[in-house]
Structures are given as C-alpha cells and as structure tokens.
Design a protein that fits this description.
Strand content: 15-25%
Radius of gyration: 29 Å
Helix content: 40-55%
Number of strands: 16
Number of helices: 15
Strand order of the largest sheet: 2-6-7-10-1-11-12-13-14
C-alpha cells in the first residue's frame, strides 16, 4: 500500500510589543515569576481589559506581508475552557471574525517548483500562563499570561515534514523582517501545532487527524511529524482505529504521547467578549500600515540573485536573516566581489559564529572590514589561506585586517626572483622527491610545494610557487 500525508499548521507568534494585549504589564521575557502581572492579566473579578492598538497594527502588518485580506470589521471572543494556565477560565481570542483571511506563502516544493501554501486566517489572542511541573506539584507563572499572540492557521496544503519545515522557516523569516516578532523559538516566541492525517493514496476521504502541540524547534517539528506519520501508517496496516486526539512530542524519547481527546470547536462555547468594543479598520489604516512593510526576504533574495549574480541557494541562505543580509550587501558593494563576500559569510564566518554561539550583531568587526579582507586577498597581498587566519584573528580581537597583516608580517611575497631562489634550495634538499616525481609520482610535487610554503611561513604567492616548481621539475 502507498500512503500520503496531509498537514496543516497552527503557528502561534508572540508579538514584540512592550506591553501585554489587554493591560500595561511588561512583555519582557523572564523576570521573577508572577512579577509582570496585574488584576487584568490575573483575571481577577471586576478587572476590565482594554485592547493594545499596537497589537492590531502588528497583526495587520503580518497579514499584509502574508498576502491576506484585512477585515474592516472584527471582534474579540471568549473561548471557554478550564485549565490552570487560564485564570479567567476563558481565553480572549477571535472566532468567526478574525482580522486577516485568505493569505498564502510560496515554498520550493518537489522538483524545485514553487508551491503555494494557503493561509486560512490570522487572528489575535492572549497567551496563557506558563506551567512548571515539579516533583511536588505544578507551579504557575503568570508573567506570560496576556502576552499578545497572532495565530496563523494554514490550509491542509502541506504534504510532508520537509514542506512543513520550509513553510515555518519562510514564515519566521518574513515575521522577523517586518519586525512584529523576534521569533525566538527557544523562548517560546514562535510555537507550532500540527494537524496530521494519513490515508492510502487511492482513498478519496482524508484520514482521521491528530494534533501535535507546542513544537518549538525546526528539528523537533520534522522528527515529530515523521514519527506521527509512521505511527498512522502502522495503525492503518494493522487495522487499528486512529483516535482524534491531541498529542505531545517527547524529544528525548523520540515519540509522541496522548495529552487529551481532541476538542471540537463547539466544546469551547465561543461568544463575543462583552468588555471589549468591536474592531473597525479603515482602508486608510491598511494603506498606512502597508507602507511600513520593508523589502521581504524572498524579494531581497531575488534582487541579490540579479544584482550580485550569486546562486539562488546562496541568496536564500543570506536572506534568511535580515542582519546577515545587510552585512552581506554592504560587504559585497564595498569589496566589489559579491561571490567572495557570500563565501566568507557562509563559510568561515558561519563556522566561527556557530562555534562561539554568537550572532552577526555580536561580531567585533564590521562588514566594511570584511570588505577590506576580501580586497587584500583579491589584490594578492595575502593568500586565501592567510585570509582564513586573519579572519580568525578578527573574531578574537576585532582588529582590522590591515593591522593584523602588518603586525604579524603576513603580507604575501609576490617577488618571483626571491621565491625562485627558495624553490631551487628546497628542490636541492629533496632529491628523492624530485626522482619520485620523474618516476610518475605526481604527489611528490605537492610535498615540495608544501616544504616551500613552510620555508616562507606561508607568505609566498602559491600561484608563483606552483608555476616555478612545475617548471623546475620538468
């Protein structure tokens, strides 16, 4: 039997406002437990919420960036459920009248073809408190309660865990670029729920779906979805019944487990929130907010391809983070060598940043100093290998490449006469290697070249060394 999976994602994004959605409490991450709270976000009797205008603007901005239509009339609703992280016993959210509808983003699907993933809706809501489970019981921190969220609900257009990851990565890059969220998954600013069903390819009707809750990394998303798809397939093959339920992913054990039976929408008994007025958005409001949307990552990637003549892959990697994209663009223009700038950033710089767990904004040197390094290599004042030593020093000290080269005497020797004398000297000292070369062992030339580079402390121009050694060994 052949099977196919159908996936829809519900992505919860914490908005980067200074205060919560219905009160003036801070949204700052961390802090002493239950210190960023007030009667409103604690749900105390008699407290009255008031909506944060910035939340509405950020949600509209996200909707426009994701090709949604914006509702002129919207409202807030109460979603009723009983859980310790929800002190009012209801969550203020949006049900039938969300702010944004009918959007989409495009990802690269099978055979490198663009695939459109439709977005059903984007609505605003308040976050719940954080539960901390201990050996002695469960603790509740209400600092997160009332932090503003947008929930982005996709249509079931995703067919594989890989596509789900690509969708979420692109979504993240767009939201970061427009500045509505920092999307720090490790802090819970971006969380993902997935609805998954599996059926035989010949079957028209979709399979029974299960929901995976609160996935907070790309690696976990792909592993969890792959596990769940295999679980569904095994159950179908064994003739077992698949229950409609909510499950959690255990990253350590590498499996999902049941949390609860999946609720239906009518279980929540939605009704309009009587304390909050209706939301009315004018066309002028939408036009004003649209003007604040910068160049989006995929638009920037297309421009980089054309303007800097770099590959589609390089452009996609460099624009996945706006700070990296800005760093690259400046270095590319100042150095006049965009391909080299891309190679340094995606190669040595990326390696060092990963090793040191730092981001591009934490670097001790600037994009103009990377451009200076590229110019030193391109003008043959230093070799590419010496350049690798220089950039490592730049990471450590923040000194300019010119100062490092001058201080450590790393300038490349391009004097052919001087290099020729060293070549002759090394060849005379290694007659066996010369004879090996003449006997057909071409690797012997590499040994001699290595000895010459050692003799010159790596400063001899490698092109000149190669040319002279090949000439002498003929």
């Amino acid at each position: 039997m052949e099977f196919e999976s159908t996936i829809g994602l519900e992505v919860h994004v914490e908005l980067s406002t200074n205060t919560k959605i219905f009160c003036g409490c801070s949204t700052e991450f961390g802090g002493i437990p239950n210190s960023h709270v007030c009667p409103v976000c604690l749900g105390l009797p008699g407290s009255i919420p008031m909506i944060n205008k910035k939340v509405i603007e950020y949600a509209i901005k996200a909707g426009l960036a994701l090709n949604c239509s914006i509702a002129n009339n919207s409202r807030m609703d109460r979603k009723n459920f009983f859980y310790p992280d929800c002190p009012k016993n209801y969550q203020i959210t949006q049900d039938k009248f969300p702010l944004c509808r009918n959007g989409y983003i495009e990802i690269e699907g099978e055979n490198n073809k663009e695939k459109k993933i439709r977005i059903e809706r984007i609505h605003i809501e308040e976050d719940a408190a954080k539960l901390i489970h201990t050996e002695n019981g469960t603790l509740v921190d209400y600092n997160r309660s009332g932090v503003p969220l947008i929930e982005i609900v996709s249509k079931p257009d995703i067919e594989s865990p890989k596509e789900a990851t690509m969708y979420l990565q692109k979504l993240k890059s767009i939201l970061q670029a427009i500045g509505v969220s920092d999307c720090k998954m490790e802090q819970g600013s971006l969380r993902c729920d997935g609805n998954i069903s599996v059926k035989e390819k010949t079957c028209i009707k979709l399979g029974v779906r299960t929901e995976l809750k609160n996935i907070n990394s790309f690696k976990a998303l792909e592993k969890a979805f792959e596990y769940e798809i295999k679980r569904h397939i095994k159950a179908i093959e064994n003739g077992e019944k698949i229950e409609r339920e909510t499950r959690r992913w255990d990253d350590e054990k590498g499996r999902t487990s049941v949390m609860r039976s999946k609720e239906q929408a009518n279980d929540y008994r939605y009704f309009p929130d009587g304390d909050l007025v209706a939301i009315k958005i004018s066309d002028e409001d939408v036009k004003r907010i649209k003007k604040t949307i910068p160049e989006l990552p995929y638009e920037m990637a297309e421009r980089f391809e054309k303007e800097f003549k770099i590959s589609k892959y390089d452009a996609a990697v460099l624009t996945s983070n706006l700070k990296i994209a800005d760093f690259f663009e400046n270095a590319a223009k100042l150095s006049g060598n965009p391909k080299s700038a891309a190679n340094w950033i995606m190669g040595d710089m990326s390696k060092f940043m990963n090793e040191k767990s730092i981001s591009i904004e934490d670097l001790k040197f600037t994009s103009s100093e990377l451009a200076d390094l590229i110019k030193l290599v391109d003008s043959h004042k230093i070799s590419n290998n010496i350049g690798k030593k220089v950039i490592e020093e730049m990471f450590e000290t923040g000194e300019s490449p010119y100062d490092i080269v001058n201080k450590k005497g790393l300038a490349q020797n391009n004097n052919e006469g001087e290099i020729y004398e060293i070549v002759k000297k090394v060849i005379l000292k290694n007659p066996k290697s010369v004879q090996d070369y003449k006997n057909g062992k071409k690797k012997a030339a590499k040994f001699i070249i290595g000895m010459i580079m050692k003799e010159t402390k790596g400063n001899a121009n490698p092109e000149i060394v190669n040319k002279l050694v090949n000439k002498e060994l003929r």
